[in-house]
Amino acid sequence: MKSGTPALLSQWTTLAPVLAVIALAAAWGRQLPGFVVAILAICLFAAVLAAVHHAEVVAHRLGEPFGSIVLAVAVTVIEVGLIVMLMIGGGDKASTYARDTVFAAVMITCNGIVGISLLVATLRNRVAFFNAEGSGGAVATGCALATLTLVVPTFTTGKPGPEFTGGQLAFAAVASLLLYGLFIGVQTVRHRDYFLPVRSDGSPCGPDEHAEPPTDRETLTSLILLVVALVGVVGNAKLISPSIERGVDSAGLPTAAVGVVIALMVLLPETLAAVRAARSGRMQTSLNLAYGSSMASIGLTIPVIALASIWLSGPLILGEGPTNMVLLALTAVVSALTVVPGRATLLQGGVHLVIFAAFVFLSFSP
């Protein structure tokens, strides 16, 4: 029975991404009845679980922090494609798609993923340990990126409303890309040891002793299937989104709620991977996934949207309103206080989850 389980898992995680993409191709550009939407939702969640498996295979072969970067960047690249497709679709809501999606990703990763990972880790081991130097640098970089792109536009005067002028948008795009690239360089080369999982005494955790590293062929196969699974996740999320929009409209909820729901679906692979890492006592891996995804969402999305705005008509609203700016400031302060000691308890996890719950609640009831 035990010997058959890995083979069964391998077959299932190989089949799920392929079926998700086949369902995506068959349903693309068609009017979707309710039962088809339900099938797409099932394919989406199956692809999410498969993506987590393949991401863990790649991470196990590459080691930290490279495994976390692969998953964060892969999800973000496809998420950017989804944002651009939604903006090309046009409509009155297109001007805020990028802002709503990026802000939702920041709040989900920095509060939702961090909070639930801390909760899981501290319920198991009472105290979660991680590297303060690496996590602190990630928080500082993420706060700078979020402020430059989501707060500053509200206060600039070059254009009426919370918009950048063309020159300001170009500066924000270049600054975001350079800052994210600098962080990746520090994370992977200059100070890689700052982003490795640590024990309670501060020493780095060794490699997983319970499993042999996958071969190069297995790693390449999982990397390909990871990309296929993520295409299925984001593509099916886009197909399901009109049904979500209709449900939101019929319930009289604000349009920002659509972005929250879609972002939650797209970020499911990273959430599950972070929780599994926290359960195994590798809290630093969870933080790498959370903060890395937050920075990638800004550092890759803003430059692409800046380029796309050249041929896309209509305004590009990036500046947040007062409520979200308060939530962002609160997230920055709490995140800094969480990571500076290098260890956290159940209390810190609860604080982050309450902030996340406030964000979700206020998105549906502003």
UniProtKB/TrEMBL annotation:
It is found in: Membrane. The keyword NADP does not apply. One of its GO terms (cellular component) is plasma membrane. It is a multi-pass membrane protein. GO terms for molecular function: potassium:proton antiporter activity; sodium:proton antiporter activity. Keywords: Membrane, Transmembrane, Transmembrane helix. Its main location: membrane. Residues 34-188, 222-364 form the Sodium/calcium exchanger membrane region domain. It comes from the Bacteria. The chain crosses the membrane at residues 12-29, 35-54, 66-90, 102-123, 135-155, 167-186, 220-239, 251-268, 289-312, 324-340, 347-364. InterPro entries: Alkaline_pH_Ca-Antiporter, NaCa_Exmemb. This is Ionic transporter y4hA. It comes from Streptomyces qinzhouensis.
